[in-house]
Amino acid sequence: MKLVVVSAGLSVPSSTRLLADRLAAATGRQADVDVEVVELRELAVEIAQNLTNGFPGRRLAAAIDAVTSADGLIVVTPVFSASYSGLFKSFFDVIDKDALTGMPVLIAATGGTARHSLVLDHALRPLFAHLRAVVVPTGVYAASEDWGAEGLDGRIERAAGELAALMRGLSATRRPAPDAFTVVPFAEQLAAMTEGSAN
């Protein structure tokens, strides 16, 4: 299965990327996954250009293709002004609104204080619910004091286990976008039912 990790960290090294890597590793211990990481920092210019001209650059197009063709996503953003970063939101703004329908998603965020932990339920979860993704019950927030402290590892493992289970259960049954459904005229349906009852 293909697991794509979207990291919106801006610095190098980045606590956001560190959390993303730990979540991916934990998921890999519970499911057979091939991991691909999308670093939004490297795509910032192309994302801005796509927002203004409507066309993705080569690297952005590859990132969008990776995300939309994944069996599961891990998305991690730093907290800015009590919400996800503008770069994070802009990336998902350039993805077709139906492309993540049924996609298993693990949401996570990093911040300087535990007071911003509500970003998971007040910003990230509504965003992916709007995109009709399937968000795992456990989100992971890591404040500065959480690194090396008791509790973070347990949350990571629990969330990763939920994502692995969803990926196994949903990857083969993701519903296609509405325009991919085949509409069968009622007359044909009726003929098929009549033929079946005659046998």
Describe it.
By secondary structure, the chain is of the alpha/beta class. It has a single domain (2-198), classed as Rossmann fold (3-Layer(aba) Sandwich). It is 45% helix and 19% strand. The chain contains seven helices and seven strands; from the N terminus they run E-H-E-H-H-E-E-H-E-H-E-E-H-H. It has helices spanning 15-30, 44-53, 58-68, 86-93, 119-130, 152-170, 186-198, and strands spanning 2-7, 34-39, 72-80, 83-84, 104-111, 134-135, 140-143. Strands 1, 2, 3, 4, 5, 6 and 7 form a seven-stranded mixed β-sheet that branches. The protein is globular, with a radius of gyration of 19 Å. The N and C termini lie far apart (42 Å). The relative contact order is 0.16.
Number of strands: 7
* Domain unit count: 1
Percent of residues in helices comes to 40-55%
- Please name the fourth-level CATH homologous superfamily: Flavodoxin domain
What integer value in Å does the Rg equal? 19 Å
Mean pLDDT: 87
Contiguous uncertain segments of 5+ residues: 174-186
CATH class value? Alpha Beta
| Distance between the amino and carboxyl termini | 42 Å
